[in-house]
Amino acid sequence: QAYLSYSNIAALTHLARKPGWDITKTLDNVKIWTHEEGAVLSFKVEMQVKVPSHVAFSLLSDFRLRQRWDRHFLTCEVLQAVSEEEKIYHVTSAPMTGHKPRDFVILVSQRQPCRPQEPYTVAVRSVTLREVPPSPEFCRSEILCAGFQIHSKSSSSCTVCYFNQVTSGVMPYLAANLTGSSKSIEDTALECIKFLE
Description:
Number of strands: 10
Distance between the termini: 34 Å
Strand content: 35-45%
Domain START: 16-166
InterPro entries: START-like_dom_sf, START_lipid-bd_dom, START_lipid_transfer
CATH superfamily: START domain
Pfam families: START
Organism: Drymodes brunneopygia
Largest sheet: 10 strands, mixed
CATH class: Alpha Beta
CATH topology: Alpha-D-Glucose-1,6-Bisphosphate, Chain A, domain 4
Number of domains: 1
Shape: globular
Protein name: ACO12 thioesterase
Helix content: 10-25%
């Protein structure tokens, strides 16, 4: 478990530092970036939020609050509190037209910065739990690497960056979006800002 949580944080840090991000959209307080590498598409949503970074961190690291701003989350329950900083959740998400609803078993690792210039980190990846085998009513999907980095800007504002390395399981939700025919990434980002503020 220690290795899993370390690699969870390390994978997100590595993704955030990759060169070659292309900006695809800029709104008032939201920017959307993409990064393509072989068959892997990653995206980054950068949000300017008027709350202190530690407040954003505590709200974003509790995934049970996620349904309040992310309509892709139908249910979210804690399966196991591994430690103060690690929890395993079971998440279900709404079905896309013609598909079964999806479910995910994810490890969420949270870290406070060790040094002032470092971000707060909330990293997410799929894990396997014997107690929660795939169920016939859901399509079990996988998150390779996702999460938030929260950078403090001032005592009352921060920049929240959400990253997701997209697999085919998440693709149906995003395909329409990145081509510009749907606005769900933007809408979700704006809902997130509204929730945090």
